[in-house]
Each structure stands twice: as structure tokens, then as C-alpha cells.
């Protein structure tokens, strides 16, 4: 897809043919991409879901093993499913609309005594935290 980066950081233990084969397994053909690294060798790798549930464990394990072998200290991969712990785009947009209404449309003098609770109810601060 045109939104993918031109270059990828790839663990040397993954062969080009593996990457091509695996790319078809990811939703939107979005291969894992290296997003950030720390001087200690830790990395943040973003990875889309794998389409085929039967192949998911094998592909996931192969990629995680390659990432572990690439770490200077051979540290294990820590995975976090951001779909489960972050708000959706729709929730963020709804919170922004509520915040905007609170700040722009409501006269402050009329809502002053409940303004902080109204701000909290938008969930905007929670989401941007």
C-alpha cells in the first residue's frame, strides 16, 4: 500500500522470501514496522493483526523470535494489544467534539460550577494522557 514506508528495518534472521510470504497474512499487508529504538537495544515494533487465525501463532512466533535474536541482550518480546487498551478513533473524535462544545459553545459563567466535571466527562484528558 502507498501508506507504507519506503524502507523497513528487518531482523537479519528473516529472509526476504519469508517477508513476502508473511506480508499476505497481515491485514492490509502491513508488515511489522520498527517505529522506535532505545540505546539499550529495545525497540517498539508496530504490527497489524494476522488474518488467518490458524497461521497466526506460527507467524507471530517466527517474527517475535527474529526480533529477540536481533536484540543485543536477547530480551524477550513484550506484546501489547493496543486495540484492547487504547480508545478507538471514534471515541477520541467524540471526546474532542464534547471538549470543543464545552470550550466554545457553552458560556463559561453559566457552567463554571460544573465545568471541571463536564471536562472530565468528555474523557479528552484521559485519552491524551
TrEMBL record:
Residues in Myotubularin phosphatase domain copies: 1-129
Biological processes per GO annotation: phosphatidylinositol dephosphorylation
GO (cellular component) term, any one: membrane
Membership in a protein family: Belongs to the protein-tyrosine phosphatase family. Non-receptor class myotubularin subfamily.
Name recorded for this polypeptide: MTMRA protein
Amino acid at each position: 500500500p502507498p501508506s507504507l514506508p519506503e524502507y523497513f528495518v528487518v531482523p537479519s534472521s528473516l529472509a526476504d522470501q519469508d517477508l513476502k510470504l508473511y506480508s499476505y497474512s497481515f491485514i492490509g499487508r502491513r508488515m511489522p514496522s520498527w517505529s522506535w529504538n532505545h540505546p539499550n537495544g529495545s525497540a517498539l515494533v508496530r504490527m497489524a493483526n494476522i488474518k488467518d487465525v490458524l497461521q497466526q501463532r506460527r507467524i507471530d512466533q517466527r517474527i517475535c523470535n527474529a526480533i529477540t535474536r536481533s536484540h543485543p541482550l536477547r530480551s524477550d518480546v513484550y506484546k501489547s494489544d493496543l486495540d484492547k487498551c487504547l480508545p478507538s478513533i471514534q471515541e477520541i473524535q467524540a471526546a474532542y467534539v464534547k471538549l470543543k462544545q464545552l470550550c466554545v459553545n457553552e458560556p463559561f459563567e453559566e457552567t463554571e460550577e460544573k465545568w471541571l466535571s463536564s471536562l472530565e466527562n468528555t474523557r479528552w484528558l484521559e485519552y491524551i494522557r
